[in-house]
Amino acid sequence: MSEQIPAESEQTPEGSVSRRTFVAGTAVVGAVATAGGIALVVDADDAESAAAALSATTGRVSLRVNGEQHTATVDNRTSLLDLLREQLGLTGTKKGCDHGACGACTVLVGDRRVNGCLTLARKVDGAEVTTIEGLADGDDLHPLQQAFIDHDAFQCGFCTAGQIMSGSACIAEGHIGSPAEIREWMSGNICRCGAYTKIVTAVQQAAGRQ
Amino acid sequence: MYPFAYTRASTVQTALSLGGRGGRYLAGGTTLVDLMRETVERPGSVVDIDALPLRDITAVAGGGLRIGALARMSEVARNQLVRTTYPVVAQALELSASPQLRNMASIGGNIMQRTRCTYFRDVSAACNKREPGTGCAAREGYNRTHAILGTSEACVATHPSDLAVALMALEAIVRLAGPGGDRQVPFGTFLLQPGTTPNREHDLRPGELITAVEIPAHPRPLVSGYLKVRDRQSYEFALTSAAVALRIQGGVIRDAKVAAGGVGTIPWKLRAVEQALIGRRPSAELWTRAAARAAEGAQPLRHNRFKVQLLQRTVERQLRVIGGTR
Fold this sequence. Notes:
heterodimer, A: 210 residues, alpha+beta, Ubiquitin-like (UB roll), DNA polymerase, domain 1, 5-stranded mixed sheet, 3-stranded antiparallel sheet, 22% strand, globular, disordered N terminus, B: alpha+beta, Enolase-like, domain 1, 5-stranded antiparallel sheet
């Protein structure tokens, strides 16, 4: 597999290359090939390679989601959130702000809770992802899912998938010593309905069961 | 978001080669992806450096600390070596962002994160940092959260990092790898004040990559901590903050490292406060007298005059917390 990036383009003061500059002026590209874990860089200066660089704005991603292997071709701009929702049909994960501010898109990559909206899909190639659809064990709800029902810890429900994914990680991390600690470690998940009190109670209950 | 080419680098050498050709380094992506979506950032090519072996957190001879540039904020914050040697670093990290973002964002990226000035992020607004020469909408606009120190006619945006405030206080060193070889830069000169070129934010040469941040071994005993004052109790940027480290021996302050956040165009080293502390005995009066010098040179704007006193009080409170003596 090889990919190309533009070379010797004009640099902005930040060291980046604008696409406009690239499209207008680039005839020289560097082709990068990875073989046996050793990365090589090969120079190419023909128009064919330049054209290939222009088309390299998509790529393939292979990942496991909720234990199931998926492979998809994505535009490099695609977020993990959009990959899940638009291409894999897993719409349980919600798009709130799309800026990493609300937490509605929270999923686990490995055992880490992350914002799916700020995670480029290309970055999770080879990763293990868990979404709200994968939290229950068959028909047995995850203790936190059950606790949300028991305590009526939601109103409109839009933030709930993110709250539960984040809360399950919060419990696994052990940040459950007090309601104040839970609040602090759940602060990346916004609930516009204001169900925070019950969300904290639900996290406490689920933490106690584990 | 504009289309871009994406390459994953597996070695530092490859990354430097790609970076030297204009590729933009991407680590956690929490700043860059967000700003690309807003079209504030428009890299034509992105080099994913996540797989590079730059994540170790190690002790440096004599009690210093080296933090790999790709260590995650959450990893560093919970690291026992960090928590015991420089608690101010762990505290600054845990008071930053959200647990999700701290799981994603790297240490190098944290230092490189760009301002939260709303005019910078709004591509329809005048902003010399984003588009040199267009002016500064914040100067005459709503500037409650903006800087009072280190500002210029061209820019009044604050640097948003909490970690960087701790690194400034502790006089850290930034280790760099580049096409021209390795070098190291004192943190105090790594981030640049805006002057007439607010688009230039750091002393990085084209293609250079942050490989680690190193905190020197300051003599012990050293007590340190971070205080952050903000509009919300959590998940919010600082209005003011203070990173303080004191070495008190024999009832006398032998050394003081103090910096402030939320008030400067870069994290602001408070040398006048440090000088007012060193060689003196801790007392409530000393904290007040020293903290009074925290805002020296401040040039408040229309909506952020409150920051002058808030900064002094933030520093005073944290001196009291770290130095004792109520």
